[in-house]
Design a protein that fits this description.
binds adenosine-5'-diphosphate; seven-stranded mixed sheet; 32% helix; alpha+beta; Phosphoribosyl-aminoimidazole Synthetase, Chain A, domain 2; 310 residues; 60s Ribosomal Protein L30, Chain: A; binds magnesium ion
């Protein structure tokens, strides 16, 4: 066990994640790190905060929570089609043991990924939290974005929706079986898939974190289009129907959140390269807002997605 702040930083975080990216000029350990951006590329940056009791249950293993927090942050780079290069982790720790566990989780998320832990901050606080900044690179002008959808485009999902929220419900009901709760415990950021989409010419993408309808709404608003989603087509919905009544399954698939799937728009006919990656779940229209149907009939929802201040 380490003693003091600097030992803790070294032992719990820095020594567990030692990969250094080829574009790094000055790595973790100085007042700041220094990175070159390769010619013809742009820097992509995003930051995400995860707090115990809000983003993960208080009795959830901290190692899994930290791994999840890093993976969730990386999902934003996936949505941009970026190559992930660096992360910075700001840990608020209730005690030293929390630092060791969080460091294990951060290292697990970065392992075998060629992503560098470029820095961070570590403080003692009453509540555990992990704030993760991620950065990557993308060829100039090619980042996927929320405002590029056009009426007539298909709406596609890479990944599934609802299973993570269902797994979290199971955890909250007391299930500790890996099988039942793994969709919440193990977030896989779709980094390779995002790069494949971007290279295939996809221009408009968002990652689903707040809930499918809420995030489709962000994309629709930014692009000035309407979106129609057929719930029966959403990957994950059929699996949920094996455990839940259809209306509850629909509610979870559309609003559960925490999916970290990629929602993108593209032609109704995807090329051969993208077809195995994604499922068509709807289309963009000339209107505004998001409408969901189930077997063609409009469905009413109790809520649209997660809102911290609602
Ligand atoms: P400063 O006082 O300059 O803010 P710190 O003493 O907080 O630096 O941190 C020392 C070094 O360790 C810095 O290079 C910082 O980026 C890194 N660091 C601190 N906390 C973490 C962490 N949780 N994960 C990774 N690196 C960290
Ligand atoms: Mg500091």
């Amino acid at each position: 066990m380490s003693t003091g702040e600097f030992d803790l930083i070294d032992h719990a975080f820095r020594k567990k994640a030692t990969f250094i990216h080829r574009a790094t000029q000055l790595a973790n350990g100085d007042d700041a790190s220094v990175h070159a951006i390769p010619a013809g590329f742009e820097l992509v940056l995003s930051t995400d905060m995860s707090v115990a009791g809000i983003h993960w249950p208080l009795d959830f293993p901290l190692k899994d929570a930290a791994c999840r927090a890093v993976n969730a942050a990386l999902s934003d780079l996936a949505a941009m089609g970026a190559e992930a290069c660096w992360v910075w982790c700001c840990a608020a720790l209730a005690d030293v043991a929390a630092g060791e566990e969080m460091g294990d989780g951060v290292a697990r998320a970065l392992k075998n990924r060629a992503i560098e832990l470029a820095g961070g901050d570590t403080v003692h606080a009453p509540i555990n939290s992990l704030s993760v900044t991620v950065s990557g690179i993308v060829p100039e002008g090619s980042a996927m974005r929320r405002d590029a959808a056009c009426a007539g485009d298909g709406v596609w999902l890479c990944g599934n929706a609802g299973l993570a929220a269902f797994a979290l419900q199971r955890w909250q009901q007391g299930s500790r079986s890996g099988q039942e709760t793994s969709a919440f415990q193990q977030v896989r950021p779709l980094l390779n898939e995002g790069i494949v989409l971007r290279k295939a010419g996809v221009r408009c993408c968002i990652d689903v974190s707040d809930g499918l309808l809420a995030d489709a709404g962000h994309l629709a608003d930014a692009s000035g289009v309407g979106i129609e989603i057929e719930t029966g087509s959403v990957p994950g919905f059929d699996a949920l129907c094996r455990f839940l009544p259809r209306d509850e399954a629909a509610q979870l698939a559309l609003t559960g959140g925490e999916d970290y799937a990629l929602l993108f728009t593209a032609a109704m006919n995807l090329g051969d390269e993208l077809t195995p990656l994604a499922t068509c779940i709807g289309r963009c229209t000339a209107g505004a807002g998001v409408r969901a149907t189930l077997e063609g009939r409009p469905i009413e929802l109790k809520q649209q997605g997660y809102d911290h201040f609602a």
